[in-house]
Design goal:
binds uracil; 6-stranded mixed beta sheet; alpha/beta; 263 residues; Uracil-DNA Glycosylase, subunit E; 40% helix; binds iron/sulfur cluster
Length: 263
């Protein structure tokens, strides 16, 4: 494996991710991890050239013996064990070019066994800063939709097709969506929602068909790996086209009916 190079500005964030990962391994019962001496040398060089090594900002050393090398790419159908394990893989993922421009990864968040899962396109500027899905303007509208359905935001799961922000909020490319999809599939397998709501064209393209168009598919039940899935408009589209809220509400009523809840 290549020796990793670490930009000085990334050091704090990288070290924090490493500590989280080591703590996770320790909680899983591991007391030792293999580490290539080349990597230790690279980390030592990086730490000695950054301000993060100054007193005051030091991160407490992890209790396990040594650091692991970076995680292997995820494989289709691989058992990722837990949502936390997936989020940690995502945090260090470099499987597509979006890793170069992200500030934070956005794995998605919410209830661990939700009835309902919402899937959007990808993080925007606010999400990229905070590491949380749907926290900007579109996210506030999504919260209103969720609450109008009789749920609290933390009772559902909210995530995206890609976990890193595409520059200038452009839609992710098919290659980026494909690279990231195994994470979402692993999340869905753990979450086992009763219903998935695809928010906008990218979510439908990513899960079903790159040629899909949302205006033709919205409101029609689809099936993603055995789970009832409802495509509807993205909340950002609703901000530009408020009259489409009526369609979204019709779609959410169908979802509530499928869940045995009343609107
Ligand atoms: N738009 C999305 O598709 N996802 C987010 O997380 C935020 C805005
Ligand atoms: Fe990895 Fe997905 Fe981020 Fe690409 S978008 S770097 S595949 S986590």
């Amino acid at each position: 494996m290549d020796t990793p190079t670490i930009a000085a500005t990334d050091w704090d964030e990288w070290l924090e991710a490493l500590c989280t990962h080591l703590t996770f391994l320790q909680e899983e019962g591991q007391s030792h991890v293999a580490v290539d001496p080349k990597h230790v040398a690279a980390w030592r060089t990086a730490s000695s050239t950054t301000t993060a090594a100054s007193p005051g900002t030091a991160v407490p050393p992890p209790k396990v013996a040594a650091a692991p090398s970076s995680p292997a790419p995820m494989e289709e159908g691989e058992d990722m064990g837990s949502l936390e394990a997936i989020a940690q893989r995502v945090a260090s993922c470099q499987l597509c070019g979006l890793c170069k421009t992200r500030t934070r990864t956005v794995p998605g968040q919410g209830a661990p066994r939700p009835e309902l899962m919402f899937i959007g396109e990808g993080p925007g500027a606010d999400e990229d800063q905070q590491g949380l899905a749907f926290v900007g303007r579109a996210g506030k509208l999504l919260t209103k939709i969720i609450e109008a359905m009789g749920f609290q935001r933390d009772e559902v799961w909210i995530g995206n097709i890609v976990k890193c922000r595409p520059p200038n909020n452009r839609p992710p490319t098919p290659e980026e969506m494909n690279a990231c999809l195994p994470y979402l599939k692993a999340q869905i397998a753990l979450l086992q929602p009763k219903v998935i709501v695809c928010l906008g064209a990218t979510a439908v393209k990513g899960l079903f068909n790159p040629q899909a168009t949302i205006s033709r598919l919205r409101g029609q039940w689809m099936n993603f790996e055995g789970i009832d899935t409802m495509p509807t408009y993205h909340p950002a589209y609703l901000l530009r086209n408020p009259s489409a809220k009526r369609d979204v509400w019709a779609d959410m009523k169908a979802v509530l009916e499928r869940l045995g809840r009343s609107a």
